[in-house]
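Can you give me the bound-state structure? Components:
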Amino acid sequence: MNTIKDLLKEHSKSPSEDVWERLSGRLDVEMPTGKSSSWSNLSVAKKTVIGVVSGLLVLGGVTLGTLAYHPDRSSKPNDLAVLESMDKIEEVIESEVVEPKVVVEEAPAEELPVVKEVKPVVENPAPEEVPAQEVSNKTEKAPVKQNVKQEVLPANSTLAKQLAEDPVLKNLSDGSVDWSKPTQLRIPNLFTPNGDGVNDLFVIEGLDQYTSPKLIVRDKNGRVVYQSNNYQNTWGGRDCPEGIYYYEFTFFYNGIENQATGRVRIIRT
Amino acid sequence: MKEIDSDIEKIIAGCLKNDRLSQRQLYDRYSSELFGLCRRYSSSDEEAEDLLMEGFMQIFKNLGSYQHKSAFGTWVTSVMLNFAISHFRNSSRFRMEILTENMELLENVDEEEQIRTNLVADQLLQLIQQMPEAMRVVFNLKAVDEYSFTEIAQMLDKKENAVRNSYMRGRKWLMERLKLEKD
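Here's the bound-state model for the whole set.
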């Protein structure tokens, strides 16, 4: 009789050679040989939340400066206008006591909203797209203890009421708004272009909420297999063999550019 | 021991220069062990391979932050584990349900007591991979990687009670199935 701890901890197994092939394909794209600081030329995919949040704030004419906090916030030209107007509004709002609260720890676990079956689009920014320095800081500080805090607006604030029906942000069951989860955009993680009329196309739900949807799809070697500057859910994976592909989906909400990246699998049976 | 150390240092230096051969050497050295880790946290070997690949990307990208304070193997494992945890924590299948029924029964179980089995690792893994996602992650963290409930609660951003509850139910889940296997 063995303890299950030992059995599980000590077992090891060689992964299939396919894993290295995919890995080296990714390395070729993201860390090309001969450049030791390849991360500097990585496309820094911005997490969409900050964009969406600032967009809404400007729209509503109110702001919660601290709520819009995002660690990756950079001064892209796109963001500048927003940040400026936010600064102005912040002065006005200082008298209103609207303290952002981190409610997550208080919320019973079973109430955490879950998107059924469909992969939520905007997950935390894919770690590989965070600039290297930030990643290393994080890893250094507390390797196993990175908490993802969700910032939630108090349910009784005016802004929360205005936003309660918002199509983009997640509304929690207690009436407050979860800023970290835009919901209406859902990108599938697989589709089956076999001509049976079911799930034949790469359909991004909620596409119509956004303007200038731009899609780039690459294979595991980094070759662009599909590109559209005005994507209308029409990609059917033509000439693409089965396997994993990587998409980069750029879209605008209230004039703010956002990007979602991820993987999609093509299955042809 | 010294020799092995200088060997791995060479490989690390090569990886930092983005030398593909060194990256392959590093991969060969740790992939089996880390694949083992990924397999017990995943719901299928296919998912484990995806996790392994993405985790290795993290290892290569963050290699510059390795401070030589811990053994390199420990560092590599912790990067992979962190990556796995963040992957599952963000997954839509990750739900920690709180059931109050039968809690008294569960409370009487000695949580530190080792579970034993005649199964071989692969059979056991097949069971583990069928566990509900949150239960499986919590069970691994507690029973195999030996973190405390407090630590796990912090890692997963959940309440300690929920974590404890999830672990107890995972234990019960597993023991029931191990019993079935025996009969």
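A couple of observations. The first helix of chain B runs from residue 2 to 16. Chain B has a mean pLDDT of 85.
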